[in-house]
Amino acid sequence: AKPHYECALKLFEEMFGPDHPKVAKALNHLALLLHAQGEYVKAKPLHERAVRIRQEKLGPNHPDVAESLNNLAESLLYQGKYDEAKPLFERALRICEEKLG
C-alpha cells in the first residue's frame, strides 16, 4: 500500500502544486499508513506538512485542520511526547466543537 500512497502524493504534487489541499489529504493518508505500521517518527513530518497546508489553504479553524492536528497529536502520543500532543488534541477538539457542534 505504501508505494501506492507515495505515488498518489507525487501525482497530486505534480498536478496541483506542493501546497494544495489534495496534497495534504495524500500526506495524511501516507502518514496514517506509517502510523499504523508503527513508524511514528516518519509519520510526524508528513502530518506537520498536512497541518501547515490545510491551515494556509483552508483557514486555521477548518475541520480538516482539526483532523490533521489530531493525527499529528496521536503520532506524538505514541512516541511518548505527551506535552507536545496535549495542546494539539485540545486545539483539534476546540475546532470540532466550534465547527461541528
UniProtKB/TrEMBL annotation:
TPR repeat placement: 66-99
GO molecular function terms noted in the UniProt entry: kinesin binding
Example GO biological process: microtubule-based movement
Keywords for the protein's UniProt record, in alphabetical order: Coiled coil, Cytoplasm, Cytoskeleton, Microtubule, Motor protein, Repeat, TPR repeat
Record localization: Cytoplasm, Cytoskeleton
Listed GO CC annotations: cytoplasm; kinesin complex; microtubule
PANTHER family assigned: KINESIN LIGHT CHAIN
Family: Belongs to the kinesin light chain family.
Protein name (Swiss-Prot/TrEMBL): Kinesin light chain
Lineage: Eukaryota, Sar, Stramenopiles, Ochrophyta, Pelagophyceae
